[in-house]
Amino acid sequence: MTQADNKALLQQVFAETAKGNGRPFVEALAEDVRWTIIGGTAWSRTYEGKRAVLDELLGPLAEQFAGPNLVSAERFIAEGDLIVVEGRNHSVTKAGPAYPNRYCWVFVMRNGKVADITEYTDTQLITEVLSPPGSASSPHRTE
Fold it and tell me: What counts of helices (H) and strands (E) characterise the chain?
């Protein structure tokens, strides 16, 4: 796929995540995808493989939201197999606080699939609003 094809694919994927439809995002992941979340939070690490991404990251994250995980993208920059996406989360947690996180993702594409993601994000917000993966309780953010 060309640089333009890769960019168009992610634009379509994020048009759907903005409506709460995460299926196209999951379908775009390669089976051997690697997703690294920066920082020192309980969520920060590299998730190896699509199954780990679903079971250890996206599933536990979805459990904390009161509705679908709503993520919009505001900017796409493409260079070769790299697509940089600036995004924003619009979800609300079951515990009540909003989760207005901002992201910069660096996607590496391979054969029309997402092979690697590096996520730069507000790690302090993650710590304040989200419970660690597998935890039953949610922290309450102080305003």
Answer: 5, 8
